[in-house]
Q: What sequence folds into this?
């Protein structure tokens, strides 16, 4: 018998489809919800049931949790899967599910709360022996104290306003005599922008990598990790290519990272799928805790591919109280997987490109997977994230996975809107990506001027000839239309002639 | 049929002749010689939503989106926006601006969104590639920059405004 009768999926797009697929394979009914803008979205077509939840802005639909719970009750759903983003880490929503007697497929409210606050999360990690970035314990009150800490942890350091964000209230200090001015600047920015002058100091990792570990826990105190993913290819701090395993993590460090992550998960009695993110220093091979995401992530398929574990199925089973279906020793990394996030955006300016998809043909072939909600005629709405598809390829070796990804991208047809497929193709051929030494600064350093590379692929006459033929056809059909419509003056003239 | 086209800042004269079995397309980039291409209709075939185009031994799957003067051509996951003016439009343009196609005198919103910040001030001269404003759409902040040197005539929006696709955000005039 299925663990749940019916699951409501409080999300949209590819992740809603991914969860619907797991439900169907497990014999569980699926309930989609949709906003005004998403009536024609593929997740609505694929689910067993679908309910309208409000206007297009997510605040009034996908984030309106009272409405979602109301729909779940009406549909008779006994569980809700939040996917990623939207309500996935919202404690009020998780609590409201509990109160309504509906199972929230995700971690406990206490888990989300413990990891939601960065300072308390860091303290918890330290307690469980997970390496954290060396620095001050909480706020620093004076320049003298700041200098003392910097001398202890070594330069460069970063001074950050506690309440800061978006690059404000942040200074990297590379020389001791710069500390005083940076300290004062951060305090005053903290006060001016966030009404809080508290600052703290951390060791600054030059050119780091972003490595994360997938963890899983059940309600029977079993905790495991499913190895790492490297997500250093980012633009505007958002990931676009992920791979597993990371080409930079030595086996011994990999095991240590995994063990540390399991310790962290145990420390908080973590339940369900979670990810512990680390800053990784590629020179020293040291890793430091950054934050924990208490949800399923966009890049979960690469872990599924290399470990053979269906993470969504596992989430559903664990939420229903079943023990994990595997033990740590059962989990092996087999081969290499890469994921490319296909976004509706201009690959040169990174500006979103919503609109109607005209042609859409997904690549096919061995050892690959496409998680997508794109189809011909679909109007990509402006209200949500620009990611429309995820392409995942697998290879016995990293090189094979990359080559397969290149092949699959070359087959991918998406027209009518601009996409970043060509950016992916350029990245995959870049020597720094190929040799695996790329860091989070990779895009910034190498793709400020992506344009020439991108334009080399097809010669201008191909575009000009096609545009000229179509412009010619448009003009010709307009002429024909004009010939067929007799003018009012002509008709009037004819009438006058008939009268005389 | 005669056209003028602009692709990535380069101007072209284009001549298209349709035969029974082929297209004759002649292209002349400004300052260069005419180049003639004979394209068999068998090599430029419509297949469902797109066109299969065999050109100089290479196979392209092409889609052309647009009408009037603005066309976007997609192929091999690459795309180009092409401005193309036919004889009729060239005549209109020449009546309007005294010949050729000049820059736009308005900054329009390409999609619905929210104005986050405005950098430009009325009466100010903004140099090419300098930011004019930031608009939020699809959860991303998009900086809109001046495509050429312009003088700000009128700012039609204010911070926090929600705008529809095609809305005029800023009106320009030629800097004196």
A:
């Amino acid at each position: 018998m299925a663990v749940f009768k019916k699951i409501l999926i409080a999300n949209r797009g590819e992740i809603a489809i991914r969860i619907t697929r797991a439900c169907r394979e497990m014999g569980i009914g699926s309930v989609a919800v949709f906003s005004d803008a998403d009536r024609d979205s593929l997740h609505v077509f694929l689910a067993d049931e679908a309910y309208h939840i409000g206007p297009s802005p997510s605040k009034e639909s996908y984030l309106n949790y009272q409405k979602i719970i109301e729909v779940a009750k009406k549909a008779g759903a006994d569980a809700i899967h939040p996917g990623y983003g939207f309500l996935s880490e919202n404690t009020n929503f998780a609590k409201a599910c509990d109160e309504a007697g509906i199972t929230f497929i995700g971690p406990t409210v206490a888990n989300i709360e413990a990891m939601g606050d960065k300072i308390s999360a860091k303290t918890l990690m330290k307690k469980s022996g997970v390496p954290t970035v060396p620095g001050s314990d909480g706020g620093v009150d004076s320049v003298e104290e700041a200098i003392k800490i910097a001398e202890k942890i070594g330069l460069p350091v970063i001074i950050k306003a506690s309440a800061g964000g978006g690059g404000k209230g942040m200074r990297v200090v590379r020389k001791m005599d710069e500390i005083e001015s940076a300290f004062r600047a951060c305090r005053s920015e903290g006060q001016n922008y966030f009404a809080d002058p508290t600052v703290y100091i951390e060791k600054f990792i030059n050119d780091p990598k972003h490595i994360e570990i997938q963890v899983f826990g059940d309600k029977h105190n079993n905790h495991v990790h499913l190895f790492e993913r490297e997500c250093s290819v980012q633009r505007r701090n958002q990931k676009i290519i992920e791979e597993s395993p990371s080409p930079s993590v030595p086996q011994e460090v990999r095991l240590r990272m995994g063990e540390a992550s399991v310790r962290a998960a145990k420390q908080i009695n973590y339940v369900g799928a979670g990810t512990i993110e680390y800053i990784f220093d590629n020179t020293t091979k040291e890793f430091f805790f950054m934050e924990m995401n208490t949800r399923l992530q966009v890049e979960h398929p690469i872990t599924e591919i290399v470990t053979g574990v269906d993470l969504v199925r596992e989430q559903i089973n664990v939420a229903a109280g079943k023990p994990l279906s595997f033990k740590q020793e059962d989990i092996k990394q087999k081969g290499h997987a890469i994921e490319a996030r296909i976004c509706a955006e201009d690959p040169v300016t990174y500006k979103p490109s919503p609109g109607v998809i005209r042609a859409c043909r997904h690549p096919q072939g061995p050892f690959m997977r496409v998680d997508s909600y794109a189809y011909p005629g679909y109007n990509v709405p402006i209200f949500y994230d620009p990611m429309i598809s995820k392409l995942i390829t697998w290879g016995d070796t990293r090189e094979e996975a990359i080559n397969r990804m290149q092949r699959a991208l070359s087959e991918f047809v998406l027209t009518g809107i601009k996409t970043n497929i060509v950016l992916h193709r350029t990245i995959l051929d870049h020597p720094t990506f190929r040799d695996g030494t790329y860091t989070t600064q990779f895009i910034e350093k190498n793709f400020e001027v992506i344009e020439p590379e991108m334009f080399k692929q097809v010669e201008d006459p191909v575009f000009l000839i096609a545009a000229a033929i179509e412009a010619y056809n448009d003009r010709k059909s307009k002429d024909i239309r004009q010939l067929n419509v007799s003018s009012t003056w002509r008709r009037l003239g004819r009438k006058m002639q008939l009268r005389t | 049929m005669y056209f003028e086209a602009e692709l990535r800042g380069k101007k072209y004269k284009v001549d298209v002749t349709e035969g029974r079995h082929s297209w004759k397309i002649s292209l002349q980039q400004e300052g260069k010689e005419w180049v003639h291409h004979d394209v068999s209709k068998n090599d430029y075939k419509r297949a469902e939503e797109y066109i299969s185009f065999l050109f100089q031994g290479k196979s392209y799957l092409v889609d052309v989106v647009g009408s009037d003067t603005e066309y976007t051509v997609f192929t091999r996951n690459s795309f180009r926006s092409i401005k193309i003016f036919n004889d009729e439009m060239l005549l209109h343009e020449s009546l309007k601006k005294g010949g050729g196609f000049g820059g736009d005198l308005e900054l329009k919103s390409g999609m619905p969104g929210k104005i986050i910040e405005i950098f430009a001030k009325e009466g100010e001269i903004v140099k090419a590639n300098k930011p004019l404003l930031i608009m939020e759409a699809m959860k991303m902040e998009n900086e809109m920059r001046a495509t050429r040197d312009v003088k700000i005539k009128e700012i039609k929006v204010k911070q926090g405004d929600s705008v529809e696709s095609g809305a005029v955000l800023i009106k320009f005039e030629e800097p004196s």
Observations:
- Chain B touches chain A through 51 residues (CB under 8 Å).
- Residues 2-86 of chain B form a domain with the Glycoprotein, Type 4 Pilin fold (CATH 3.30.700.30).
- Chain B has one helix and 17 strands.
- Chain B has a mean pLDDT of 85.
